[in-house]
Design brief:
By secondary structure, the chain is an all-alpha fold. The protein has one domain. It contains six helices and two strands. A two-stranded antiparallel ribbon has the order 1-2. A hairpin with a 2-residue loop joins β1 and β2.
Length: 170
Amino acid sequence: MAPLLACVVVSGRSGIAISAELGTMRAGGEVEILDSQGIDPMTFLIMPRVLAVMVSVFCLAVVIAVTMVVTGYAVGASMEAIRNTWEDFVAEISRNFDFQDVVFFTTKTLVAGGFAGVICCVEGISVRDATTDVPRVTSRAGIRALTAVFAVSAILSILFYDIFLVFQFG
């Protein structure tokens, strides 16, 4: 759940901002100026943003996962639904956690973050000469990025665990 939430937050906040920034740069002619100076816009503008989105999604997903565990324990212990100590609680989580879960978490955050970053950048850079295109493209980028995040999450869940929502495959 943490990778999906992190992707939604980063796409909705930073992805749309990236799309608007690149769209404004394209409409203002800044991208063409970089290209005319021999600077590849893909390398200079898009790749750093895509990598930043990927790293941001991963880091935020780790923070969300840790917060979920701590909050889950705090609420459960305060309602007396969890009667274990914190150490026992964490030990139980560790026993039920395997290497496949770590690979899945990392893959899901990086792949979904990469898709969201690429989609937002490509949509932003697709603006043509009118500044009035920026809001339309920005909105489209957000919707497409979120759709891709949900699709990638579903596909990776099926590939890793043979399960989608509550439906078991295989």
